[in-house]
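Input chain follows. Return structure tokens only.
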Amino acid sequence: MDNDPESTEFKEHFRARLIAEREALAVESKESEDSRKPVELDQQSVGRLSRMDAMQGQAMAAASEARRKQRAALVEAALRRLDDGDYGYCIDCGEPIGIKRLEVDPVFPRCVRCA
């Protein structure tokens, strides 16, 4: 692949990766919807320890969703930079971000020196 952030191949490669990640995050969010719902406090159907386990599971699912939303925001920001023609360039110094760095994580907005 071309290392030039201006090349069509570069842009298409990273756009496809970012869109795929955005879709995967949306699927994960949808699949975990039930586990984030409030825990019923019905004493008849669930014992105290089971209810505590369910509440802990719900809290962990909520924390995972918060991380997914944060990651989705980073993906959207990277897609906006792509649309604006700024993707692949450090937001601090303006120098190109190394392709190896972007391959590791395509949402990185800074080069190694500025990170």
